[in-house]
Design goal:
Helices cover 26% and strands 25% of the residues. It is α/β, with parallel strands linked by helices and 501 residues long. The protein binds alpha-L-arabinofuranose. Keywords: Carbohydrate metabolism, Glycosidase, Hydrolase.
Protein backbone atom coordinates (compact mmCIF):
# COMPACT_ATOMS: atom_id res chain seq x y z
CA UNK A 1 0.00 0.00 0.00
CA UNK A 2 0.84 3.69 -0.22
CA UNK A 3 0.43 6.44 2.38
CA UNK A 4 1.14 10.17 2.65
CA UNK A 5 1.97 11.86 5.92
CA UNK A 6 1.67 15.65 5.82
CA UNK A 7 3.44 17.37 8.71
CA UNK A 8 2.54 21.01 9.39
CA UNK A 9 5.95 22.50 10.16
CA UNK A 10 4.53 26.01 10.02
CA UNK A 11 2.29 25.44 13.00
CA UNK A 12 3.77 26.52 16.37
CA UNK A 13 2.66 23.17 17.82
CA UNK A 14 1.68 22.31 21.38
CA UNK A 15 4.39 21.87 24.04
CA UNK A 16 5.01 18.22 24.89
CA UNK A 17 5.03 17.96 28.66
CA UNK A 18 7.86 15.66 29.76
CA UNK A 19 5.42 14.20 32.22
CA UNK A 20 3.73 12.30 29.39
CA UNK A 21 6.55 9.80 29.89
CA UNK A 22 5.75 8.78 33.44
CA UNK A 23 5.29 5.26 34.78
CA UNK A 24 3.68 3.56 37.73
CA UNK A 25 5.03 1.24 40.43
CA UNK A 26 2.56 -0.49 42.71
CA UNK A 27 3.17 -2.84 45.60
CA UNK A 28 1.90 -5.77 43.55
CA UNK A 29 3.49 -9.11 42.74
CA UNK A 30 7.23 -8.71 42.17
CA UNK A 31 7.26 -5.02 41.20
CA UNK A 32 9.03 -4.06 44.42
CA UNK A 33 10.32 -7.28 45.98
CA UNK A 34 12.75 -8.97 43.54
CA UNK A 35 12.04 -6.20 41.01
CA UNK A 36 13.17 -2.81 42.27
CA UNK A 37 14.56 -4.23 45.53
CA UNK A 38 16.39 -7.51 46.07
CA UNK A 39 19.02 -7.49 48.82
CA UNK A 40 21.57 -10.21 48.12
CA UNK A 41 21.15 -10.02 44.34
CA UNK A 42 24.56 -9.85 42.59
CA UNK A 43 23.74 -6.38 41.22
CA UNK A 44 22.19 -5.01 44.45
CA UNK A 45 23.71 -1.87 45.97
CA UNK A 46 24.17 -1.37 49.73
CA UNK A 47 20.46 -0.50 50.09
CA UNK A 48 19.29 -3.58 48.22
CA UNK A 49 18.32 -1.83 44.94
CA UNK A 50 19.05 -3.87 41.84
CA UNK A 51 21.40 -1.69 39.80
CA UNK A 52 20.61 -3.70 36.63
CA UNK A 53 17.00 -2.51 37.00
CA UNK A 54 18.08 1.07 37.76
CA UNK A 55 20.08 1.13 34.53
CA UNK A 56 17.19 -0.16 32.43
CA UNK A 57 14.73 2.30 33.97
CA UNK A 58 17.16 5.15 33.23
CA UNK A 59 17.43 3.97 29.65
CA UNK A 60 13.63 3.83 29.43
CA UNK A 61 13.51 7.57 30.17
CA UNK A 62 10.77 7.78 32.78
CA UNK A 63 9.92 11.33 33.88
CA UNK A 64 7.92 10.56 37.04
CA UNK A 65 6.64 7.49 38.84
CA UNK A 66 3.24 7.17 40.50
CA UNK A 67 3.45 5.16 43.75
CA UNK A 68 2.45 2.98 45.74
CA UNK A 69 -0.81 2.00 43.94
CA UNK A 70 -3.13 1.20 42.28
CA UNK A 71 -5.60 -0.95 44.10
CA UNK A 72 -2.98 -1.55 46.81
CA UNK A 73 -3.09 2.05 48.02
CA UNK A 74 -6.74 1.79 49.05
CA UNK A 75 -5.79 -0.52 51.93
CA UNK A 76 -2.39 1.02 52.70
CA UNK A 77 -1.19 2.80 55.81
CA UNK A 78 1.80 4.89 54.71
CA UNK A 79 3.14 4.88 58.29
CA UNK A 80 3.82 1.12 57.93
CA UNK A 81 6.51 1.92 55.38
CA UNK A 82 8.55 4.42 57.41
CA UNK A 83 10.79 4.09 60.46
CA UNK A 84 13.29 1.39 61.44
CA UNK A 85 12.93 -1.64 59.19
CA UNK A 86 12.91 -4.12 62.07
CA UNK A 87 9.81 -2.53 63.56
CA UNK A 88 7.79 -2.25 60.36
CA UNK A 89 4.68 -4.42 60.42
CA UNK A 90 3.88 -7.29 58.09
CA UNK A 91 0.36 -6.85 56.71
CA UNK A 92 -2.19 -8.52 54.49
CA UNK A 93 -2.71 -6.80 51.16
CA UNK A 94 -6.37 -7.44 50.32
CA UNK A 95 -6.18 -5.97 46.82
CA UNK A 96 -3.75 -8.63 45.57
CA UNK A 97 -4.19 -11.26 48.30
CA UNK A 98 -0.52 -11.04 49.24
CA UNK A 99 1.70 -10.43 52.26
CA UNK A 100 3.32 -6.98 52.44
CA UNK A 101 6.47 -6.84 54.57
CA UNK A 102 6.96 -3.08 54.16
CA UNK A 103 10.70 -3.32 53.58
CA UNK A 104 10.27 -0.61 50.99
CA UNK A 105 8.25 2.49 51.81
CA UNK A 106 8.32 6.21 51.10
CA UNK A 107 11.99 6.82 51.99
CA UNK A 108 13.36 3.86 50.06
CA UNK A 109 11.22 4.53 47.01
CA UNK A 110 12.21 8.20 46.94
CA UNK A 111 15.88 7.18 47.18
CA UNK A 112 15.40 4.72 44.34
CA UNK A 113 13.84 7.48 42.22
CA UNK A 114 16.86 9.68 42.89
CA UNK A 115 18.98 6.85 41.44
CA UNK A 116 16.84 6.55 38.31
CA UNK A 117 16.39 10.32 37.94
CA UNK A 118 12.57 10.47 38.07
CA UNK A 119 10.11 12.49 40.15
CA UNK A 120 7.79 11.00 42.74
CA UNK A 121 3.99 11.19 42.36
CA UNK A 122 2.15 9.96 45.45
CA UNK A 123 -1.27 8.35 45.46
CA UNK A 124 -3.34 8.77 48.63
CA UNK A 125 -5.58 6.21 50.25
CA UNK A 126 -9.05 7.73 49.96
CA UNK A 127 -10.62 4.26 50.00
CA UNK A 128 -10.28 3.09 53.58
CA UNK A 129 -8.78 6.33 54.92
CA UNK A 130 -9.61 10.01 54.60
CA UNK A 131 -8.60 13.66 54.80
CA UNK A 132 -6.73 13.47 58.10
CA UNK A 133 -4.39 10.70 57.00
CA UNK A 134 -3.79 12.53 53.71
CA UNK A 135 -2.78 15.62 55.69
CA UNK A 136 -0.51 13.55 57.91
CA UNK A 137 1.37 12.21 54.91
CA UNK A 138 1.54 15.62 53.24
CA UNK A 139 3.00 17.16 56.41
CA UNK A 140 5.49 14.31 56.76
CA UNK A 141 6.53 14.60 53.11
CA UNK A 142 6.55 18.34 52.44
CA UNK A 143 6.87 20.46 55.62
CA UNK A 144 10.46 21.50 56.32
CA UNK A 145 10.62 21.31 60.12
CA UNK A 146 9.08 22.14 63.44
CA UNK A 147 6.45 19.44 64.00
CA UNK A 148 6.38 16.01 65.54
CA UNK A 149 5.99 14.46 62.10
CA UNK A 150 8.85 16.40 60.54
CA UNK A 151 11.06 15.45 63.50
CA UNK A 152 10.09 11.84 62.89
CA UNK A 153 11.04 12.17 59.22
CA UNK A 154 14.41 13.62 60.20
CA UNK A 155 14.98 10.75 62.66
CA UNK A 156 14.14 8.38 59.81
CA UNK A 157 17.07 9.78 57.86
CA UNK A 158 15.49 12.61 55.88
CA UNK A 159 15.94 16.08 57.41
CA UNK A 160 14.90 17.79 54.16
CA UNK A 161 11.37 17.38 52.88
CA UNK A 162 10.57 15.15 49.92
CA UNK A 163 8.81 18.05 48.17
CA UNK A 164 6.19 15.95 46.42
CA UNK A 165 4.18 18.20 44.13
CA UNK A 166 1.71 15.89 42.39
CA UNK A 167 -0.81 13.88 44.43
CA UNK A 168 -3.54 11.51 43.30
CA UNK A 169 -6.73 11.82 45.35
CA UNK A 170 -7.27 8.07 45.65
CA UNK A 171 -7.27 5.36 43.00
CA UNK A 172 -10.10 4.12 40.74
CA UNK A 173 -12.76 5.09 43.23
CA UNK A 174 -15.43 4.29 40.59
CA UNK A 175 -14.50 0.57 40.61
CA UNK A 176 -16.56 -1.82 42.77
CA UNK A 177 -13.35 -3.88 43.26
CA UNK A 178 -11.70 -0.93 44.99
CA UNK A 179 -11.47 -1.10 48.77
CA UNK A 180 -13.69 1.74 49.93
CA UNK A 181 -15.33 2.19 46.51
CA UNK A 182 -17.75 5.12 46.64
CA UNK A 183 -20.53 6.69 44.64
CA UNK A 184 -19.53 9.63 42.44
CA UNK A 185 -21.27 12.06 44.83
CA UNK A 186 -19.56 10.64 47.92
CA UNK A 187 -16.14 10.52 46.28
CA UNK A 188 -16.52 13.98 44.72
CA UNK A 189 -17.28 15.51 48.13
CA UNK A 190 -14.42 13.67 49.85
CA UNK A 191 -11.94 14.61 47.10
CA UNK A 192 -12.96 18.28 47.18
CA UNK A 193 -12.74 18.43 50.97
CA UNK A 194 -9.35 16.68 50.99
CA UNK A 195 -8.00 18.91 48.22
CA UNK A 196 -9.07 22.07 50.06
CA UNK A 197 -7.46 20.83 53.27
CA UNK A 198 -4.23 19.89 51.49
CA UNK A 199 -3.97 23.32 49.89
CA UNK A 200 -4.33 24.96 53.32
CA UNK A 201 -1.17 23.11 54.23
CA UNK A 202 0.71 23.47 50.92
CA UNK A 203 -0.73 25.82 48.27
CA UNK A 204 1.76 24.70 45.62
CA UNK A 205 0.32 21.27 44.85
CA UNK A 206 -0.94 19.65 41.71
CA UNK A 207 -3.94 17.46 42.53
CA UNK A 208 -5.38 14.65 40.44
CA UNK A 209 -9.04 13.70 40.74
CA UNK A 210 -10.05 10.08 39.99
CA UNK A 211 -11.84 9.78 36.68
CA UNK A 212 -13.09 6.45 35.35
CA UNK A 213 -11.05 3.27 35.58
CA UNK A 214 -12.02 2.52 31.99
CA UNK A 215 -14.15 3.94 29.21
CA UNK A 216 -16.28 0.78 29.45
CA UNK A 217 -17.42 1.44 33.01
CA UNK A 218 -21.21 1.77 33.19
CA UNK A 219 -20.74 5.05 35.05
CA UNK A 220 -18.29 6.52 32.49
CA UNK A 221 -19.06 10.14 31.63
CA UNK A 222 -21.58 10.66 34.41
CA UNK A 223 -18.87 9.81 36.94
CA UNK A 224 -16.60 12.52 35.48
CA UNK A 225 -19.41 15.08 35.36
CA UNK A 226 -20.41 14.43 38.98
CA UNK A 227 -16.95 14.35 40.57
CA UNK A 228 -15.88 17.44 38.62
CA UNK A 229 -19.04 19.25 39.68
CA UNK A 230 -17.97 18.72 43.30
CA UNK A 231 -14.24 19.30 42.92
CA UNK A 232 -13.66 21.33 39.73
CA UNK A 233 -11.98 24.36 41.25
CA UNK A 234 -9.93 22.30 43.71
CA UNK A 235 -8.08 20.07 41.25
CA UNK A 236 -5.71 20.44 38.30
CA UNK A 237 -6.09 17.12 36.54
CA UNK A 238 -8.58 14.29 36.22
CA UNK A 239 -7.33 10.76 35.60
CA UNK A 240 -8.05 8.32 32.78
CA UNK A 241 -7.12 4.62 32.93
CA UNK A 242 -7.15 2.27 29.94
CA UNK A 243 -5.82 -1.23 29.31
CA UNK A 244 -5.99 -2.97 25.95
CA UNK A 245 -5.54 -6.60 24.93
CA UNK A 246 -5.90 -8.79 21.87
CA UNK A 247 -9.23 -10.59 22.31
CA UNK A 248 -10.31 -13.76 20.51
CA UNK A 249 -7.48 -13.50 17.99
CA UNK A 250 -8.86 -10.20 16.62
CA UNK A 251 -5.51 -8.57 15.90
CA UNK A 252 -6.99 -5.89 13.61
CA UNK A 253 -9.15 -4.43 16.40
CA UNK A 254 -6.33 -4.72 18.91
CA UNK A 255 -3.91 -2.85 16.64
CA UNK A 256 -6.49 -0.04 16.44
CA UNK A 257 -6.69 0.39 20.25
CA UNK A 258 -5.51 4.00 19.96
CA UNK A 259 -8.83 4.82 18.28
CA UNK A 260 -10.47 4.00 21.60
CA UNK A 261 -7.90 6.03 23.54
CA UNK A 262 -8.55 9.03 21.25
CA UNK A 263 -12.30 8.78 21.86
CA UNK A 264 -11.76 8.36 25.61
CA UNK A 265 -9.64 11.53 25.80
CA UNK A 266 -12.05 13.52 23.61
CA UNK A 267 -15.03 12.53 25.80
CA UNK A 268 -13.29 13.46 29.03
CA UNK A 269 -12.15 16.80 27.55
CA UNK A 270 -15.76 17.49 26.52
CA UNK A 271 -16.97 16.67 30.03
CA UNK A 272 -14.34 18.84 31.71
CA UNK A 273 -15.24 21.76 29.47
CA UNK A 274 -18.97 21.21 30.02
CA UNK A 275 -18.50 21.46 33.79
CA UNK A 276 -16.31 24.55 33.33
CA UNK A 277 -19.01 26.17 31.19
CA UNK A 278 -21.79 25.38 33.65
CA UNK A 279 -19.78 26.79 36.54
CA UNK A 280 -18.55 29.78 34.57
CA UNK A 281 -15.10 28.93 35.89
CA UNK A 282 -11.85 30.38 34.57
CA UNK A 283 -9.93 27.50 36.08
CA UNK A 284 -8.35 24.96 33.74
CA UNK A 285 -8.47 21.20 34.32
CA UNK A 286 -6.52 18.79 32.12
CA UNK A 287 -6.03 15.03 31.92
CA UNK A 288 -3.55 12.77 33.68
CA UNK A 289 -3.66 9.45 31.79
CA UNK A 290 -2.14 7.86 34.83
CA UNK A 291 -2.63 4.18 33.97
CA UNK A 292 -2.34 2.94 30.40
CA UNK A 293 -0.85 -0.14 28.77
CA UNK A 294 -1.53 -3.48 27.15
CA UNK A 295 -2.74 -5.85 29.87
CA UNK A 296 -4.13 -9.36 29.35
CA UNK A 297 -6.67 -8.69 32.07
CA UNK A 298 -9.09 -11.37 30.84
CA UNK A 299 -6.34 -14.00 31.26
CA UNK A 300 -5.64 -12.73 34.76
CA UNK A 301 -9.34 -12.85 35.61
CA UNK A 302 -9.66 -16.39 34.25
CA UNK A 303 -6.70 -17.71 36.30
CA UNK A 304 -7.37 -19.92 39.32
CA UNK A 305 -5.81 -18.18 42.30
CA UNK A 306 -5.73 -19.48 45.86
CA UNK A 307 -7.41 -16.85 47.96
CA UNK A 308 -7.94 -18.82 51.14
CA UNK A 309 -7.51 -17.40 54.62
CA UNK A 310 -4.19 -19.18 55.17
CA UNK A 311 -2.54 -18.41 51.81
CA UNK A 312 -1.03 -14.92 51.46
CA UNK A 313 2.13 -15.27 49.35
CA UNK A 314 4.90 -12.70 49.50
CA UNK A 315 5.93 -11.21 46.14
CA UNK A 316 4.07 -13.79 44.02
CA UNK A 317 4.36 -13.85 40.23
CA UNK A 318 1.33 -11.68 39.46
CA UNK A 319 0.40 -9.84 36.25
CA UNK A 320 3.65 -10.94 34.59
CA UNK A 321 2.43 -10.50 31.03
CA UNK A 322 4.97 -11.41 28.36
CA UNK A 323 4.63 -8.84 25.59
CA UNK A 324 4.63 -9.59 21.88
CA UNK A 325 5.70 -7.52 18.89
CA UNK A 326 2.01 -6.66 18.30
CA UNK A 327 1.71 -5.50 21.92
CA UNK A 328 4.71 -3.21 21.41
CA UNK A 329 3.15 -1.77 18.23
CA UNK A 330 0.02 -0.99 20.25
CA UNK A 331 2.07 0.63 23.04
CA UNK A 332 3.78 2.76 20.37
CA UNK A 333 0.41 3.76 18.92
CA UNK A 334 -1.01 4.65 22.34
CA UNK A 335 1.97 7.00 22.77
CA UNK A 336 1.04 8.52 19.39
CA UNK A 337 -2.48 9.13 20.74
CA UNK A 338 -1.06 10.81 23.87
CA UNK A 339 1.22 13.04 21.76
CA UNK A 340 -1.70 13.97 19.51
CA UNK A 341 -3.58 15.14 22.62
CA UNK A 342 -0.65 16.94 24.24
CA UNK A 343 -2.82 20.08 24.49
CA UNK A 344 -5.02 18.43 27.15
CA UNK A 345 -3.14 15.36 28.36
CA UNK A 346 -0.48 16.91 30.57
CA UNK A 347 0.83 13.82 32.23
CA UNK A 348 0.60 10.06 31.80
CA UNK A 349 1.92 6.90 33.44
CA UNK A 350 2.66 3.65 31.73
CA UNK A 351 1.24 0.97 34.04
CA UNK A 352 3.49 -0.44 35.19
CA UNK A 353 7.31 -0.40 35.25
CA UNK A 354 8.92 -3.56 36.69
CA UNK A 355 7.63 -7.18 36.46
CA UNK A 356 3.89 -6.48 36.80
CA UNK A 357 2.56 -5.59 33.30
CA UNK A 358 5.94 -4.02 32.76
CA UNK A 359 8.53 -3.10 30.14
CA UNK A 360 11.33 -4.27 32.50
CA UNK A 361 11.44 -7.89 33.70
CA UNK A 362 13.66 -9.57 36.27
CA UNK A 363 14.43 -13.06 37.48
CA UNK A 364 15.05 -13.40 41.24
CA UNK A 365 18.82 -13.87 41.61
CA UNK A 366 19.09 -13.66 37.80
CA UNK A 367 19.12 -11.11 35.00
CA UNK A 368 16.88 -8.18 34.06
CA UNK A 369 15.75 -7.64 30.47
CA UNK A 370 13.69 -5.44 28.15
CA UNK A 371 10.26 -6.58 27.02
CA UNK A 372 9.16 -5.68 23.48
CA UNK A 373 7.16 -2.73 24.84
CA UNK A 374 10.33 -1.19 26.26
CA UNK A 375 11.48 0.01 22.83
CA UNK A 376 8.65 2.26 21.64
CA UNK A 377 8.43 3.84 25.09
CA UNK A 378 12.18 4.49 25.39
CA UNK A 379 12.47 5.90 21.87
CA UNK A 380 9.36 8.07 22.11
CA UNK A 381 10.53 9.44 25.47
CA UNK A 382 13.95 10.18 23.95
CA UNK A 383 12.78 11.78 20.70
CA UNK A 384 9.38 13.39 21.39
CA UNK A 385 10.78 16.73 22.54
CA UNK A 386 9.68 20.32 22.06
CA UNK A 387 6.23 20.57 20.54
CA UNK A 388 3.69 18.22 19.03
CA UNK A 389 2.77 19.23 15.46
CA UNK A 390 -0.49 18.64 13.59
CA UNK A 391 -0.28 15.88 10.99
CA UNK A 392 -2.61 14.61 8.27
CA UNK A 393 -2.50 11.04 7.00
CA UNK A 394 -3.81 9.82 3.67
CA UNK A 395 -3.85 6.03 3.59
CA UNK A 396 -5.99 2.94 3.11
CA UNK A 397 -8.54 2.05 5.74
CA UNK A 398 -9.86 -1.20 7.10
CA UNK A 399 -13.00 -2.37 8.87
CA UNK A 400 -12.51 -3.62 12.45
CA UNK A 401 -15.01 -5.41 14.67
CA UNK A 402 -14.47 -3.17 17.72
CA UNK A 403 -13.57 0.24 16.31
CA UNK A 404 -15.31 0.47 12.94
CA UNK A 405 -13.34 1.74 9.94
CA UNK A 406 -9.80 2.76 10.93
CA UNK A 407 -6.83 4.15 8.98
CA UNK A 408 -4.05 1.62 8.47
CA UNK A 409 -1.34 4.15 9.29
CA UNK A 410 -1.22 6.39 12.33
CA UNK A 411 1.42 8.98 13.21
CA UNK A 412 2.49 11.88 15.40
CA UNK A 413 5.26 14.43 14.87
CA UNK A 414 7.30 16.62 17.19
CA UNK A 415 9.77 19.46 16.63
CA UNK A 416 12.63 19.99 19.02
CA UNK A 417 13.99 23.43 19.92
CA UNK A 418 17.00 22.84 17.64
CA UNK A 419 14.67 22.15 14.69
CA UNK A 420 14.99 18.35 14.72
CA UNK A 421 11.71 16.77 13.62
CA UNK A 422 10.73 13.31 14.91
CA UNK A 423 7.99 11.17 13.43
CA UNK A 424 6.34 8.25 15.20
CA UNK A 425 4.50 5.95 12.81
CA UNK A 426 2.60 2.66 13.00
CA UNK A 427 1.51 0.41 10.18
CA UNK A 428 -1.50 -1.61 11.34
CA UNK A 429 -1.77 -3.60 8.12
CA UNK A 430 -1.21 -7.33 8.52
CA UNK A 431 -1.11 -7.98 4.82
CA UNK A 432 1.92 -6.07 3.64
CA UNK A 433 4.29 -3.12 3.80
CA UNK A 434 3.26 0.49 3.24
CA UNK A 435 5.38 2.92 1.21
CA UNK A 436 5.21 6.18 3.14
CA UNK A 437 5.79 9.62 1.58
CA UNK A 438 6.39 12.32 4.15
CA UNK A 439 5.33 15.75 2.94
CA UNK A 440 6.46 18.94 4.67
CA UNK A 441 4.75 21.93 3.05
CA UNK A 442 6.86 25.07 3.22
CA UNK A 443 9.82 23.45 1.55
CA UNK A 444 12.11 22.88 4.51
CA UNK A 445 15.04 20.75 3.34
CA UNK A 446 16.40 18.09 5.66
CA UNK A 447 20.04 17.11 5.39
CA UNK A 448 19.79 13.70 6.95
CA UNK A 449 17.58 11.28 8.81
CA UNK A 450 17.57 8.09 10.83
CA UNK A 451 14.77 5.56 11.02
CA UNK A 452 14.35 2.68 13.39
CA UNK A 453 11.61 0.08 13.21
CA UNK A 454 10.17 -2.55 15.51
CA UNK A 455 8.83 -5.45 13.48
CA UNK A 456 9.09 -9.23 13.27
CA UNK A 457 7.64 -11.66 10.78
CA UNK A 458 6.20 -13.40 13.83
CA UNK A 459 3.84 -10.78 15.31
CA UNK A 460 3.73 -12.79 18.50
CA UNK A 461 7.51 -13.02 19.06
CA UNK A 462 8.55 -12.13 22.64
CA UNK A 463 11.63 -11.55 24.80
CA UNK A 464 12.02 -14.04 27.65
CA UNK A 465 14.54 -15.14 30.26
CA UNK A 466 15.69 -17.84 27.84
CA UNK A 467 15.92 -15.47 24.87
CA UNK A 468 15.93 -11.89 26.20
CA UNK A 469 17.01 -10.15 22.99
CA UNK A 470 14.81 -11.96 20.44
CA UNK A 471 12.90 -8.73 19.61
CA UNK A 472 14.38 -5.25 19.29
CA UNK A 473 14.39 -2.20 17.07
CA UNK A 474 16.54 -2.22 13.95
CA UNK A 475 17.77 0.49 11.62
CA UNK A 476 15.32 0.92 8.78
CA UNK A 477 17.57 1.24 5.75
CA UNK A 478 14.66 2.06 3.40
CA UNK A 479 14.64 5.70 4.59
CA UNK A 480 15.48 8.20 1.82
CA UNK A 481 15.92 11.86 2.69
CA UNK A 482 16.47 14.20 -0.22
CA UNK A 483 15.68 17.76 0.89
CA UNK A 484 11.94 17.78 1.40
CA UNK A 485 11.42 14.41 -0.32
CA UNK A 486 11.27 11.79 2.40
CA UNK A 487 10.23 8.17 1.88
CA UNK A 488 10.22 5.09 4.06
CA UNK A 489 8.89 1.52 3.91
CA UNK A 490 6.81 0.48 6.91
CA UNK A 491 6.66 -3.30 7.33
CA UNK A 492 3.30 -4.84 8.31
CA UNK A 493 2.44 -4.63 12.03
CA UNK A 494 5.30 -2.28 12.84
CA UNK A 495 6.20 0.83 14.83
CA UNK A 496 8.88 3.25 13.62
CA UNK A 497 10.61 6.41 14.71
CA UNK A 498 12.16 8.74 12.14
CA UNK A 499 14.50 11.55 13.24
CA UNK A 500 15.05 14.28 10.61
CA UNK A 501 17.75 16.93 10.88
O1 LIG B 1 -2.16 -1.67 37.26
C1 LIG B 1 -2.91 -2.73 37.79
C2 LIG B 1 -4.22 -2.27 38.40
O2 LIG B 1 -5.04 -1.75 37.41
C3 LIG B 1 -4.12 -1.14 39.39
O3 LIG B 1 -3.84 -1.57 40.66
C4 LIG B 1 -5.49 -0.53 39.34
O4 LIG B 1 -5.48 0.84 39.64
C5 LIG B 1 -5.98 -0.86 37.95
O5 LIG B 1 -7.22 -1.46 37.97
Amino acid sequence: GQARLVVDLEHPGVPVDRRLFGAFVEHVGRAIHTGVHEPGHPSADARGFRTDVVELVRELGVSAVRYPGGNFVSGYRWEDGVGPRESRPTRLDLAWHSTETNEVGLHEFAEWLEEVGSDLVLALNLGTRGTLEALDLLEYANVARGTTRTDERARNGRPHPFGVRTWCLGNEMDGPWQLGHRSADDYGKLAAQTARAMRLLDPDLELVLCGSSSRDMPTFGEWERTVLTHAYDEVDLISCHAYYEERDGDLASFLASAVDMDAFIDSVVATIDHVRAVRGSEHRVDISFDEWNVWYLSRFQAEERITSLDHWPRAPRLLEDVYTVADAVVVGSLLISLLRHADRVRSASLAQLVNAIAPVMTEPGGPAWRQTTFFPFALTSRHARGSSLPVRIECDEQETARHGVVPLVDAAATRDEDGTVSLFVVNRSQSGPVELDVVVPGGRAFARGDARTLHDDDHHAVNTLADPTRVGVRDNSTLRVDGDAITLTLPPVSWSVVVLE
